[in-house]
Amino acid sequence: MTAERRRALMPWGIFALVLVVLPHLPGFGSGYAVSLLSQMGIAVIFALSYNMLLGHTGLLSFGHAVYFGLGAFVAMHAVRWAAAGLWLPIPLVPLVGGLGGLFFAALLGWPSTRRAGTVFAMISLGIAEMVVALSYMIVSFFGGEEGINGDRTKAPSFLGFGFGPQIEVYYVIAAWCFASVAAMYAFTRTPVGRMCNAVRDNPERAEFVGYNPQVVRYVAFMAAGFFAGIAGGLNAINYEIVTAISVGAATSGAVLLMAFIGGVGHFVGPVLGAVAITYLQVSLSDFTHAWLLYFGLMFVLMVLFAPGGLAGLWFMHAPILRAGLGARLIGPYARAVGPALVLALGAIIAIEVNYRVSTRPDLGTAFEFAGIAFDASQPWVWLLAGSLAAAGFWGMRRGLGPAFERHASLMAEAKGGGAP
Amino acid sequence: MFDLIVLSVFNGLIYGLLLFMLSSGLTLIFSMMGVLNFAHASVYMAGAYFAYSLTPYLGFWGALIAAPFLAGLVGAAVERFGLRHVHGHGHVAELLFTFGLAYLIEEFVHLVWGRNPLDQRPPPLLDFPLFTFAGIDFPAFKVFMIVVALGMFVALWLILTRTRIGLIVQAALTHPHTVGNLGHDVPTVFTLVFATGSALAGLAGVMGGIHLVTNPGMAQALGPIVFVVIVVGGLGSLAGALIASILIGLLQTFAIAVDASLADFLRLFGLQVTRATPGWEVWSITLAQIGPMLPYLLLVLMLMLRPRGLLGSRDS
Fold first, then answer.
1. Do B307 and A119 touch (CB under 8 A)?
2. Radius of gyration in angstroms for the set of CA atoms belonging to chain A, rounded to a whole number
3. For a pLDDT cut of 70, what percent of chain A falls above it?
């Protein structure tokens, strides 16, 4: 094995090791942590499958949950058949989900992919709305309002595992996560994957080279549907229930959020986004009722100021850090980020107080936030929030310019300084 | 039967005109700036809530003017401080920005007005049955909505075809760069169009908030359908938007009134479809159940067969 080969395989080894070891690390062994990790694994596959469309082929879909959800329903039916005597061990159920997703993507993909851009986006929206409407009508497949459920422990055991405990399900998810991530990465390296990029960047030229852009888009669409179906199948065995929510607009919106916040320009972007958003979803919703608002704010701020996402931010700074110039960023960044945190604190206080007053008037105006007692009926709370926000905003505006300048100059230095 | 038809036509017309009030602004924004504004229906919702909060102070008629004005200001701010910023990152970023904004506005509404539906009544001046036809009362407020929507269509049409700014807007619809090269301030025209479109959505919100119910889900209920209207009508076409709105309004109200299924249809031809027939679940779905799906079916078919829409001058 050459050194280059080894370096290329190294991240995969680390990834596999992390997946195996993670639930055994201190602090990750609790039931809460393992179920969180399971959700993250599913989200990673789903977000990466979405990015096969958005990032790699330039197709903005508002209905990717259709293939996730339909895959989940197919997988749930498979679990029920398995419980009724069909030989289908649980680890193979996600494959059934994937084939379900592939089937529906093949069915609906051809008319969707004739054009890219807005037309594709609108068609995906229309198809998603139709599937949601259908899901309440065809009760035998979708189970109506309450969805369908199944018992994964009734399926035939696999190598002695019954898949009752969450940790066993986690390892099924982890195995599929590793295989799917590797397969999706490999897909980007194939000629088809390269043609997807070509069709994204310039469909006309791709056509001149002799490829039909619709066929290329269709192939990418089916591949994305397949992996979304795998994620859906894992979701079905993880929760043992699938409802119409999983095909709905909220799920489609969530996966878009994950992929974009993570960064659609890099392969690892959606992985970061899926992990971060799932973590925030689970932890923030414990803390505050306003978590959706914070999500929205975060998303809009990312679109405005960091359209490359988390991965984009990392790659913006990696050359500087590699050149050993990171220390010189700290000062200017602190002068911009410090006031920004003050602004955020003011905004958070205002939002929390408001939420409390508007959504839970029955609890009165007295409440506790971050260990401090507040009374929303007192004007000083609003004054405090307002002045914190204003001061933070003022400081941030002064700090941003120098921070950007320092970044640009260090970037030039890192590139010009002969760093490898 | 006759009164059912009259009622469906009336309700379909009102629903359609409400859609038109929303889509007229959106179709101009979309075709000028290429931005599929997901937040448009949210501005409509904001208009309804603004009116709810302003009515105690200004009365209905004051709110009818002030709420759209506020909505217009929101629109101008969004364009000036948000969209223009994102413009450089391409259409996907713009779209995602409005997508996030729609999300934010909904949460903001939760934050300020809570999650429960709010009761808004028509003003006393319009709260009576205007006339009775075929045994049905026609409330004055609904007739007022029709008048406002049609008035809006005429006013917009006159502005677009008879004034200087209208001509610039029309030219910018198809040739934004040429208009810019001729020395017109296209960015300001954009802001103006965006503000006007938002104000019209706000006006629709004032009406819709009373006609339907003012609740945090009202943007999501109408948002996707407005997209259907502008795509079916053809981008940038005011008349197309009017026709498509009314078409979809009628389609939905009539579908809801018809309680027949495919099985009933097949029975007309002597085919016996019963519970024992394979696929009974599909055959037995009634038109009333499919009603909410029809606009999207129309959307997908339209995009596949005629992407320029009914009266559009260019492909989407």
1. yes
2. 24
3. 92
Give the chain B residue whose CA is nearest to the CA of A126: B296
Assigned token pair, A274:
């899926």
A63: helix, strand or coil: coil
- Spacing of C-alpha A365 from chain mean position: 36
Of 1.10.8, 1.10.3470, 1.20.58, 2.160.20, the CATH number of B2-305 is: 1.10.3470
pTM of the model: 0.86
Domain span holding position A331: 323-416
The residue written with tokens 């998810």 in the block is: A173
User: Which of A54, A115, A120, A129 is the best substitution to test chain B (most B C-beta atoms within 10 A)?
Assistant: A129
β-pair type (A366-369, A241-242): unpaired
Domain parsing of chain B, residue ranges: 2-305
Measured between alpha carbons, how far is B293 from B16 in angstroms, rounded to an integer? 16
Same-domain pairing of A272 and A330: no
pLDDT in tens, B166-208: 888 878 777 778 888 888 888 888 888 889 999 999 999 998 8
Closest Cβ opposite residue B107 in set A117, A125, A292: A292
Residues A158 and A215 in one domain: yes
**A103 and A248 both lie in a single domain:** yes
In A, what residues contact B, Cβ < 8 A?
54, 60, 111, 114-115, 117-119, 121-123, 125-127, 129-130, 133-134, 137-140, 249, 253, 256, 260, 290, 292-293, 295-297, 299-300, 303-304, 307, 351, 354-355, 358-359, 361
For chain A, how long is the longest CA-to-CA vector?
A: 70
- Is residue A311 in a domain? no
Question: Residue B211 CB: number of other CB atoms within 10 A?
Answer: 18
| Spatial distance between the Cα atoms of A216 and A80, rounded to a whole number of angstroms | 36
Strand B129-133 relative to strand B136-139, pairing: antiparallel
The verdict on ipTM greater than 0.85 is no
Q: Both tokens of residue B289?
A: 């159940």
A357 within domain boundaries: yes
